[in-house]
Amino acid sequence: MGLNNKIALVIGADEMPGSSIAIELARAGAKVVVEGSAGVQEKVLRTVEKFGGDALPIRGDMSIETDVRHVVDNIEAILGEVDIVVNVYPTRSVDRLIEETSYDQWDQTHGNKIRATFLCCKALIPSMKRRGYGQIISIGSSQLVGQNSGQTAITASEYGIIGLNNALAKELAGTGIQVLYMSPIDHIAYTQKEPFCISANGPDSFAKSVVLSTEQNLIG
């Protein structure tokens, strides 16, 4: 198995495609840490157990720094250092015109996903740098954003994630850490290398594509 004994943290496995990605990573041999609601965690664990995979449920608000540190400390104590982090942190669409959007709604839609990605990267990158290996994967929204009025907040959030990943890829060039952005909409993966197209139809197929690209970019 291409990801045998690699430790993968899936943030936001509450809904598709996060739960499918966690299952496919475990199927590929990774030890998967599943962050999400208890109900979804249980379903993922049951599925993984059926094919003899390895999964660990963990809870925390990944947009809060102390929670992120607690989660990372627990993972390292139980399994070891994280090799792969997949951020599928859910983006809640407000679907309101900007003058009707409250600060709290904007912050929940725009801030949480970007903040969760930032905090997890900040917590995990030092150990990845030290080992000269790591993968940071962000999954874009399954929604078509910016196509209709009332999508200002979610569109800003999605483009913010793309910008963060592009900047992070440049910042981490030469460290052995791969940075990847993937979207179920266009099925295009962006890394430090040239963009490449992947074929995906449905969440399960997309999840397999995420694992395939992870294996293709494996370093170390």
Task: Give an account of the 3D structure.
With 220 residues, the protein is α/β, with parallel strands linked by helices. The chain is globular. The protein has an 8-stranded mixed beta sheet, sandwiched between helices. Helix 1 (18-27) packs across helix 6. The chain has helices spanning 18-27, 38-50, 65-78, 103-131, 152-171, 203-216; strands at residues 7-11, 31-35, 54-58, 84-87, 134-139, 177-182, 188-190, 196-197.
Question: How would you sum up this structure in a few lines?
Answer:
The chain has helices at 18-27, 38-50, 65-78, 103-131, 152-171, 203-216; strands spanning 7-11, 31-35, 54-58, 84-87, 134-139, 177-182, 188-190, 196-197. The chain is of the alpha/beta class.
Task: Summarize the amount of helix as a percent range.
Answer: 40-55%
Q: How far from one another are the termini?
A: 15 Å
Taken in chain order, the helices and strands follow as EHEHEHEHEHEEEH
- Which regions contain 5 or more consecutive residues with pLDDT less than 50? 187-203
- Beta-strand residue fraction: 15-25%
**For the record, what is the CATH homologous superfamily label?**
NAD(P)-binding Rossmann-like Domain
CATH topology: Rossmann fold
Shape: globular
Tell me the total number of β-strands: 8
Name of the level-1 CATH class: Alpha Beta
Strand order of the largest sheet: 3-2-1-4-5-6-7-8
Classification by helices and strands: alpha/beta
CATH architecture descriptor name: 3-Layer(aba) Sandwich
